[in-house]
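Thread: quick sanity check before group meeting

JM: Hey all, I'm pulling together slides for Thursday and realized we never actually wrote out the predicted structure for the chain we discussed last week. Dropping the sequence here so it's in one place. If anyone has concerns about the input, flag it before I start.
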Amino acid sequence: MSRLNELVRYGGMVLIGVAIYQELQKPPEERTWHGKVMDFFPYEFRVPTVDRLMSRVWNPEDPRIFMPTMFGVGWTVNLGRLYYLLSGKISPEEGNQAA
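JM (edit): ok, ran it. Output follows.
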């Protein structure tokens, strides 16, 4: 298991490095400090805000359970969506129709 942890840790560091390199290749006025590495791994290096926290962590209206991370590389669990799905307060079909 420790080898898997090392692999995940090093993979994460590589993705962070690639994301930073990707941003630094852009002209300074075009740098957004958020996006995707290889069109799959989301990254977010902007200063976290309360609005972004709520939209990523507690957003039951969004049909996604895995949201782009608050800060860094990867995903965050949308606890609001998960709670409403597990409690039966909203069905997956209802959420997809609202989107």
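AS: nice. The chain has a mean pLDDT of 91. The longest helix spans residues 2-24.
JM: adding both to the slides.
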